[in-house]
Amino acid sequence: MPRLPGFAVTDHVFDVPLDHGDPSGPSIEVFARELADPARAGEELPWLLFLQGGPGGKSPRPVRTDGWIEHALRTHRVLLLDQRGTGRSTPVTSRTAARMDATSLAAYLRHFRADAIVADCELIRTRLCGDEPWETLGQSYGGFLTLSYLSLAPEGLRACHITGGLPGITATADEVYARLYPRVRAKTAEFYARYPKDRETVRRLADHLATHDVRLPDGDRLTPRRLRLLGFRFGMSDAFEHTHWLLDEAFDGTEVSDTFLLAALNATGFADRPLYAVLQECIYGQDTTPTAWAAHRAMAALPEFAEDADPLLFTGEMVYPWMFEDIRALRPFAGAAEILSTVDDWPTFYDPAKLAANTVPVAAVVYHDDMYVDAGLSLATAASVGNLRTWVTNEAEHDGIHTDGEKILARLMDMTASRV
After folding, report:
1. pLDDT at position 4
2. Which strands, in side-by-side order, build the sheet including 7-17?
3. Does residue 124 contact residue 84 with C-beta atoms inside 8 Å?
4. In the prediction, which pLDDT does 199 show?
5. C-alpha distances in Å from residue 75, one per residue of 67, 68, 143
6. Please, which pLDDT band fits residue 287 given cuts at 50, 70 and 90?
7. Catalytic positions
8. pTM for the predicted model, two decimal places
9. H or E element in which residue 33 lies
10. With bands split at pLDDT 50, 70 and 90, how would you rate the model's confidence at 354?
11. What is the pLDDT of residue 418?
12. How many Å apart are CA 76 and CA 60, to the nearest integer?
């Protein structure tokens, strides 16, 4: 059994059907990493499955025993799942996309949504645990997956813990983005209030990029609209400071600095997470209405988000059609993304009747000021799901599980165990 400092580690690779509705068809691999306390590695411990945020997010790669993992390993065996298409799970990359035509790629990518991930989890659970249910910890999109799991296979679950990830179970993409833009606007205003000079720097940068051909290290042009993607992280605890120090070194004399260009590429390049961009709106598609680039359409009606507006507003987690033209790692997905935006027969993820009758203990922390997941939608969902308790707080941002994970997981576990 390989070991990392403080961990007993076992790597698992599972063959799963690409389409669980066609078990005899093509298969893909799904990878998961098992962690245990070395002192308890030989014991029969309950399992805690970690469902990462995303879509298109691979599991954490732990480097030390602290935070929520340290707390979990006191009582559980932890399984870090690379959701299909990510990390070591038959990854979807720009090379994958380049090998297919747009129609074939779109059909392939339809198998990478929540229903397929839940089916993967159930297959893995039966292989690792037999008939025993397990517990889950769902961060952000992992909470969306949890509600799908409770809808599709609640018999596989003993208890569920959700951090910043209660979705609006009937919300369309249009409603999600109508609610999101005001939160992004407020976060940008908060950033400029904290760092007033950065407002001038951002406007200067945007004006320079509009009139000069400035290239990122991979050859892509850095444009004002791509600059605004730096607001993607504004819902995280350290995002304002990270962005401030990045802007502090934005110029080398009258030119944009190499330091800034490298950081901008890393933040907006999507080379390691193309599925996020491709599936971002698809996770809200579950009826007969195409998502149809909902974020793009919503912004067109908001003049304060125009590129010549002052202050220049950042954008958040929104994905726009131009990104599949401007960003090298996303270009091979352009045709498929357009096809997916027109799909009008998505299967539903959530079963309201089954969720209302739920008996699995669920505890969810709802971050009051969460930029990514609307607290109003989260609380409406909480009120409609049986046996679900919420903890509403403004003491943490969306990444609370990573900044104060031990405290958060401890409280959620106490809630599902009815200790508090």
Report:
1. 77
2. 3-4, 7-17, 27-36, 77-81, 47-51, 134-139, 157-163, 362-367, 388-393
3. no
4. 97
5. 14, 12, 22
6. confident
7. 140, 345, 398
8. 0.97
9. strand 27-36
10. very high
11. 94
12. 17
